[in-house]
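User: Predict structure, ligand magnesium ion.
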Amino acid sequence: MERHITLGEFIIQNQKDFPYAKGELSALLSSIRLAGKMVNQEINKAGLANIIGAAGEENVQGEAQQKLDVLANDMFISTLRKRGEICGLASEEMEDHIVFDDEIHSDSKYVVLIDPLDGSSNIDVNVSVGTIFSIYRRVTKEGEPVQLEDFLQPGNKQVAAGYLVYGTSTMLVYTTGNGVNAFTYDPGIGSFFLSHPNMRVSEKGKIYSINEGNYVHMPEGVKQYIKWCQELDPSTNRPLTSRYIGSLVADFHRNLLKGGIYIYPKGTKAPNGKLRLLYECNPMAYLIEQAGGKASDGHTRILDIEPKELHQRVPFFCGSPIMVEKAEEFLRRYPDQD
Ligand code: AHM
Ligand code: MG
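Assistant: Predicted complex:
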């Protein structure tokens, strides 16, 4: 019986297509894989911690959750620091970027932006969470401490991006600009195996994913698009199906496999939406485009937005291309009043 190839084998086989320093990017992806396995191990035990917590004080669940956020952050930082491929890292969990300036990082070319544990409010109810990562080549001079501008690059400059989804099975999905491939973790062996080669998102899609509880705060165009999704019209397969987990990685992953649109619009509660451009939207936008989909802020391609700050938020419309175009059409038809 022919076995699936492992992530390690796949990275080596495909590194000829990497744009720059090939060995280093391969090693960096291997470091992310290792940190992901460690985080996976901890998340798998989260339920146990919560059972113990529930027997004691009420707020222990909240604390345990916070601990996992910090733990995931620490695991990625320490794993990436131990090897020499990156010169700096920025994370949802830290206000400023950190500089790696030990000897082994002196000629490192890459920086990483990361959301170490996205959707972490779902951990205590055993719903899928994820890690999102984005990799750039630094733009400042090698050998010197990495600067903020190395992180504030538009998404179209990413050299690789991906996510781990800690779900019913754990998967690592990534792109280096030559399509999207997904690897499923076999915990018995401790390896990721290629399970979904060359993923493509359906052009049309049938699922819309949005937190409808925020309806009153949404721009009119988004409200009208939701209404359109709910109307009866067999010729366009409507009404569509509504699915919202509240965990970006899990919602994105399902829509990538089944076809759909994920929306987090702006609203009065969140003037620019909730999601962060650099370590949530950009990596997902790169992945969806590589799978044949689209991602925009409702008007502009996400990957072309010039970032102004590390934790910048943007509205996010992402998924099957025809669905994203339809939502954009509604936003044009009902321009914002503000
Ligand atoms: P987080 O990075 O603090 O976990 O927040 C991001 C998460 C996404 O995973 C998810 O899609 C979104 O927040 C859900 O937000 P809401 O509960 O407002 O629908
Ligand atoms: Mg997040």
